[in-house]
Design goal:
Distance between the termini: 67 Å
Structural class: mainly alpha
Number of strands: 3
Shape: globular
Radius of gyration: 24 Å
Largest sheet: 3 strands, antiparallel
Strand order of the largest sheet: 1-2-3
Strand content: under 5%
Order of helices and strands: HHHHHHHEEEHHHHHH
């Protein structure tokens, strides 16, 4: 087992140092490889040289038949296993990549969940006051912050992890922001006027007061203790706004990201531009959003064209 454990540790170090893998992705890989290691140990395998393609296929089959395991989870786990064996071949630890021919099951294509522009506007209004509101409602500091958060999510399509990691220095100017995506990959994203105004209202009226409550932090968005806001807090802010806006279906930070992409494409944006804005490594990841807009076009055509109905 020592040989197996040390090789897994070497692979995880490689992902951290050489590949610059994001912390959450690295934790997922570690969990998946521990599961694989437990399977191998249960089959009395304690050295990587004892692993065969048949064993890897057996592991994959067990994942497929495991209760509650969906195709995407199986694919993710096998990606970690395949990467591990490819690494061992590259490092000369193994003479053959025994996982190269073990393919994950095809996951059903799932369309991203987006909400309408009208629902987005209801959410934004429910989250906090208008940026220029200096009335009693507008003096609620936390709700001014919450409005800025939701405006920025919708304006940039940022992941929640990217949003909470924004520092003041990442505000290049009022119209441009710097985001750090998966693997710390940097991208520059424009910011619309509504989000600009909301963020400016937060910076002027709210952040200085929150920052006094704790030691100096470069974080853009602060909690009520003056520390960097957490992802869980953003989820709660969105959940509260959805309840206040009386939106019945589930709304998450990713809903804003999906809506951002869908609304851009519906407005005529090129898919490769949307790819850059979202920080997708491959355009094929972004192209799934085009299916959403095609479905919307079909629906409009079916209801609006005089000869669409049979």
């Amino acid at each position: 087992m020592a040989n197996l454990q040390s090789n897994i540790d070497s692979y995880l170090r490689h992902l951290t140092i050489e590949r610059g893998m994001a912390k959450n992705t690295l934790l997922a890989y570690r969990r998946d490889l521990i599961r694989y290691q437990d399977f191998l140990v249960s089959n009395e395998i304690d050295s990587t040289n004892q692993i065969t393609e048949l064993l890897v296929r057996d592991f994959a089959q067990r994942l497929v038949t495991e209760k509650g395991m969906v195709a995407t989870s199986v694919a993710r786990i096998l990606a970690a296993v395949r990467g591990f064996h490819k690494f061992m071949l590259f490092e000369g630890i193994s003479e053959k990549d025994v996982a190269a021919q073990v393919k994950p099951p095809k996951a059903p294509r799932r369309l991203p969940k987006a909400i309408s522009v009208a629902e987005i506007e209801r959410l934004l209004k429910a989250s906090g006051p208008e940026p220029d509101d200096v009335s009693g409602v507008g003096s609620d500091l936390i709700r001014v912050r919450d409005r800025a958060i939701l405006e920025l999510l919708y304006a940039t399509g940022a992941r929640v992890s990217e949003l909470v990691n924004i520092d003041l220095d990442d505000l290049i100017d009022p119209e441009i922001i710097r985001l750090f995506g998966k693997g710390s990959k940097e991208r520059i994203v424009p910011v619309g006027s509504y989000a600009q105004n909301a963020v400016q209202a937060y910076l002027v009226r709210v952040r200085p007061q929150l920052a006094r409550l704790a030691k100096g932090t470069p974080a853009l968005f602060l909690n009520q203790r003056g520390s960097r806001l957490s992802r869980q807090s953003v989820w709660q802010i969105i959940s509260d706004a959805a309840s206040a806006a009386k939106i019945e279906h589930e709304v998450s930070p990713h809903t804003f990201r999906h809506s951002f992409a869908t609304h851009l494409l519906e407005g005529g944006a090129d898919v490769r531009v949307v790819q850059e804005l979202l920080g997708h490594a491959s355009v094929s990841t972004t192209q799934i959003y085009t299916l959403v807009t095609v479905d919307a076009l079909r629906e409009i055509y079916a209801t609006a064209h005089p000869r669409a109905q049979r």
